[in-house]
Each structure stands twice: as structure tokens, then as C-alpha cells.
Amino acid sequence: MAAQGFNQELRLKQTQSLVLAPQLRQSLKILQVAQMDLRATIQEELQTNPSLEELSMDTPSLDEPAPESESSSEDSNSNAEELEFGENFEVLNKLDEDWRDYMSQAGGAQTYTSEDAEKREHFFNSLVSETSLQEHLLEQASLSDIEPVQREAIEYLVGSIDNNGFLSTSLSDLALLSGLSLGQMQEAHQILRSFDPAGIAAFDLQDCLSMQLEAKGRSRSYAYEIVQKHFKLLSRRRIPDIARRLGVDVEEVQEAIAEIALLDPAPGRRFAEDNNRSVMPDVIVEWDDDKWKVTLNSDYIPRLRISPIYKEMIAKGAITKKEKEYIQEKMRSGKFLINSIEQRQQTIERIANEIVKIQADFLEEGVSKLRPCTMTQIAEIVGVHETTVSRAIANKYIQTPHGLFELKFFFTPGYQGTDGESISNTSVKDMIQNLISGEDPAKPLSDQEIVSRLQAKDIKIARRTVAKYREELGILPSNLRRQY
Length: 484
Hints:
alpha+beta; two-stranded antiparallel sheet; 4 domains; 54% helix; 8 strands
């Protein structure tokens, strides 16, 4: 038998990749963080960059004349660095186009579909959030010993879980969307239901509570039997009826209900953003001089400048070459930070101005007049990509005559009335809430009756959509709202 040897071969392969420089990553962070978090970021930079100096709030201007001893070459270097910043910041707006080109080239004939765009938008929106429920579940999937097809199915399932942790889309619909079989989707669903937190990927509240009791080993308890067989009576607090059907005392039923009360009715909410924090408006909108005026709130953003002491040290030449290089590097970093903050504020202001133009009716009359608005729509007007808008509005708030709102609040899809006027889904939710608030408690409005009332206002909406909006508003169905 002939001996087999090892062959070494050198091959060249050309690939494209997108790499963000540290300064560009810093620009993205500054653009998307909340105002109070931005202050903390700036304070950290002040501690590590000796060339930066914070000005007091009563300082009249950031602009100061340069020392006479500075050479013209120093001025030209400063201008060159400002130009470099502008070029670098433009990279942020070109990243999306580069990404699309890369995706189309990497797959040969593979095209960039609307589904790819939705995944991409979800990805960019996720950049501005803390660890989400979806990330938590996908991490568990990556650590599980499962087949690739099961992991793919779990990804589709995770994408359909709402903020409460419930599965908002049927398995059959997900199977059709993913191209997988219903059996594969069902297997993946069973795996996902075993993940932390207990009760995740349940179909409804009853299913969620049952899963949690099973996880606690309480599948033979009265609490489990009540949830499984007498959930409607439990929802109505018909304790005597439950006791009669179980053949036990009322006290035992009350103990079982107390055990159920300790369960988590929305296991996904623990991964929601912590909103228990001080919120300061980034933008203030007021009526002034017969028009709506947009003002940026920069009270909590430190005012920075490059220390003139270090400029003088370089100009006088009283330092070594290595010291000069160190100071120049810190000065460049400081200038980039100052420019990034300025760019952030300008972007927020431009977006806020366009929102005010579109939502003028809301500012005058309230939520019922909120108009549909998309990030793409604003991006085209402002001249940036929608992902830049997504970052710019993340964690930002606007003070209006009707209260404090997230900037994201103003970006909603809508419905087209027969008169051609567009109405946002937030306004539709407000109408639904008002209809239910004014209903007869003895004869509450059904979802179909609400559909009819809205259609009378030229708003075409499906019954299942009304049910979805009602659930998002935390309103019970009509049979549970009825008061005898």
C-alpha cells in the first residue's frame, strides 16, 4: 500500500466584511443612548482623556480664540480632523447600502427580500436595547443539543413571542411562513416550552399557569385542576362553584387560588426594559409666536472643549515627541467626541421638527388625531437611513402639551378611511378604549359591535385586530366585563 502524505496548499479567497472603528462605535452609542446615560458616558471620557475640559453651564460660549503662539499648521490640522469626522460619520449612513451589496454578492443570485429587510430592521432596533427575552431564549437554544432544523424552527417561534411571553402566531401559520412542516414546528415548540422562564411560549394565560404548576411538580394539586378544568370560574372568582365541582371546602379552594396567585401571569415581562428610572425630555415642544417651537433640552449634557493648556504645550514645543503624539491623539479623540455629541443633537432636532410637522393635529387635539408615520418616511425627509432614525429616537422623550412621550410613540402604522384620511393604530386603540369606557356595563360591546362602530366612522378593521388591540389595552372580553 502506498504511503499517504499530507499536502499543504495556499489559496486566496476574497471576502467582504464590515468593521466599525472604535470611534464609529462610540458615535453609534452616543446617538442612541438616553440623555442621562450620555452624561455618564461623557463623564467616563473626561476621566480618561486629560485634553477634555468641562465648561460650567454659565459659560457664554464654547468658542475661544486660539493662542497666538499656535501655528497655522495647527489650525489646518484641526480643519483636517473636522473634515475627517464628517467623512467618518458619513460611513454610518453608507453601512446599510454596503450591507445590502454584500448580501446580494455573497449569495450569487440570492436577492434581498422584504423578509430580509424586516429581520434587518429588527436587528438594528435590538441594538438600542438591553438583553431581551428573544436574546435570552436564543442563547438557550444555542447551548442546547438540537438539530439545525429544530434551531431554525425555534428562531421563528421566538420571533413570534410577545412581550408577555405568549406565542402570538399559530404553529400552522409559522410552518407556512418558514417552509417547515407542522410536525417540525410542534417539536420545536415543545423544546422551547422547556426553556427558562417557566411558562414561556404558552398559547394563553391558562396554558401559561398550567406550565408553571407542572414545572413545580404540582400537576396533581387542586390548583392545577382549577386552572385546567375550571379556569372560567376562576376568572370570575366563583369560589363556591369551584368548591362544589371539586367536592372540597371553600377554604381549600382559597388556598389553591393563593398558590395560583404566586405564579407569573406574564413571564416575558421580566426582560422588558426597566422603566423605573428618571426620565428627562430630550425635546420640548411649545406653542410660541403662532407656531410650534422645538427646543432641545441639553441641561444634563456636559459642555466640553479641548483644554487650551494642552494646545499651548504643543505650540511651545516644550514636550518630547512621544508626549506630543500622546496629547495629539487625546485631542483628536476629544474633538471626535464633541463632534459626535453635536451631530447627535442636530439629528434629534431635525427628526423632532419633522415629527412636529406631521403630528400638528395631535399637538392641538390629542391622541385621537395621531397620524400614521414611519421611520422610512422621516428618513427620506431628513436625508438619513431609517436605521439612523431608529437609533436617534431610541430612549428619547419629547415633552408636549399632552404630556411626556417616547419619540417612538409617534411612529405607528395606520388605516385608510373611505375619505382618504389616514388614522394611526394608536388613535384606533384610543377610540376602542373610549367606546368601551362609555358602554352599558349590563350590555358590554362585543368585538364585532366595536368593529361596526368603527366602520361607521369609515375605519375598516378586522374583528381579530380589535381583539388584539383590546388585549394590548388590558381590557377583558365582553363576557367577562358584563356586570349583573
